[in-house]
Design goal:
The chain is an alpha/beta fold and about 250 residues long. It is built from 10 helices and 6 strands, in the order βααβαβααααβααββα.
Length: about 250
């Protein structure tokens, strides 16, 4: 039998709470985000979903969420992979969503947030070079930090991660946990479910709600879209994310 893949967005970060374009910035979890991670761990434990290992991004909010799950016994070894990093919003990174909407207008704001192919304004070259000298990017390949990304760009790296690190292990029957970000997990769902651009545009991933995928022998999800361990809470939280302009 094939294994189960659990996808989990990190708990709330300080940038989430402040309404910022977070992207490649590296804010910590809030107290609420820490509590969300602990609740997710208990959900997994009660469901008997204890994985031997967990893959996460190289950004602190995802690593800290995964570490709390490991400390609670919901997973084992935590391994980072930059291909799970959040989408790079380029020059929008760190700005409030309200300010970007006011400066560029609703059409551009929506296109940059929800389109699969639109790329936000790039990080200027000098600022990009400075970022590459900082943690975590100074120890990563140049491909881990471009000037900006579309969601299509994220899809490419997430698909490669899945094929390299996840698919063979799931096929062998092992359960795995992936802790990542709103947009890298939207891309992951697109890979697993073969989502259309319209379906991907409308998908929102709430923080710290375990999403389970089980697979057929051919490696396809048994249930398209997976299933949340706490579906009522998860769908209500996703609705709130949509009301704020999306993941």
């Amino acid at each position: 039998m094939s294994g189960t893949l659990i996808l989990l967005r990190h708990g709330q970060s300080t940038a989430n709470a402040d309404g910022l374009f977070t992207g490649i910035s590296n804010p910590p979890l809030t107290a609420e985000g820490t509590a969300e991670a602990d609740t997710a761990a208990q959900l997994l434990l009660r469901a008997g979903m204890q994985t031997r290992c967990c893959f996460t991004s190289t950004l602190d909010r995802a690593i800290n969420t995964a570490s709390r799950l490991a400390a609670a016994g919901a997973t084992g070894t935590v391994t980072t992979d930059w291909r799970l990093n959040e989408r790079n919003y380029g020059a929008l990174t760190g700005r409030t969503k309200t300010a970007v909407r006011e400066e560029y207008g609703e059409e551009a704001f929506t296109r940059w947030r929800r389109s699969v192919t639109a790329t936000p304004p790039p990080i200027p070259p000098a600022a990009l070079a400075e970022l590459r000298r900082k943690t975590p990017f100074r120890s990563l390949p140049l491909a881990a930090l471009t000037a900006s990304e579309s969601l299509a760009d994220v899809l490419i790296r997430v698909r490669a991660f899945h094929q390299d690190r996840i698919a063979p292990t799931i096929t062998a029957g092992e359960d795995l946990l992936v802790v990542a970000h709103g947009n890298s997990l939207r891309a992951y769902c697109a890979v697993l479910d073969d989502l259309s651009d319209a379906e991907l545009r409308d998908l929102n991933i709430p923080t710290a709600q375990p999403l389970l995928y089980s697979f057929s022998g051919a490696g396809h999800p048994d249930v398209r879209g997976g299933r949340y361990l706490n579906p009522i809470t998860a769908h209500a939280a996703a609705t709130l994310v949509a009301a704020e302009g999306g993941t």
